[in-house]
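Render DUF58 domain-containing protein in 3D.
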Amino acid sequence: MTDAAHLRARSEAEAAPLPPLLARAEHLAGTVLLGEHGRRRAGMGNDFWQYRPVMPGDARRDIDWRRSGKSDAQFVRQLEWQIAQSVMIWVDDAASMRFSSDASLPEKADRARVLALAVSILLNRAGERVGLTGQALPPRRGETQILRLAEALTQESDEDYGTPDLNGLLPHGRALFISDFLGSIDAVRAALTSAADRGVQGVLLHLLDPAEEAFPYRGRTIFESMGGTMAHETLKASDLRDRYLERLAERKAELQSLCAATGWHYGLHHSSDPAQSALLWLYRAFDGGMSR
């Protein structure tokens, strides 16, 4: 195979996931009814929002005389408040996210990418700017940005567990972190603390496979990290269950405590649950769950 043919084949292979990912994200975003977005309020802007009756203190120049001429009352024409927010997203691309306990379930990485892209589509439609941390992809609006996001989200890391990347995080902006958060809790603590120090409000979505939640293993079992760097064999996996579940509960409690202390929202999602429920929760967290 010539170098040109090899390059073309490689490029086509790398681009192949983009159309399905975009299609699924668009379909998922379409299932969420866009309600009245948080930025739709009276204020400075160019788009008409609503008429309201004149109130004491209103200037005569604010009165819409055409609308007022149709009735005995006078009305003020209000414009929509249009201050676009910047939302930076970090999606864990480490090897642990490529785990799926059953062929009928998506990999955690696949669910994370679809959710990240779908919420980006919704935020873009609502007038927000969206970007990715650590990807040299600053926040922008538009369909071209959605294509850039889709391409960047297909990248994978060889690391066993991911660490939140704050590169590109804008002061006083907003952020979304999606991960299984099975790696170093110290790294997560440092990231959330640093983000909060910059005035960043955010959402942390804890994504787990149902087997990681229930630990259904019995008998002789070999546990191996997805990156292949760690392995542990046991003859009675059930003996590890209580200790594992205790440590998982501690991890979830610590993540919730970190979010509460830094003003972030914590959400837990299992890859066996409908993606629509997670997307709706995410969009509501950004829409009405954060002060402007």
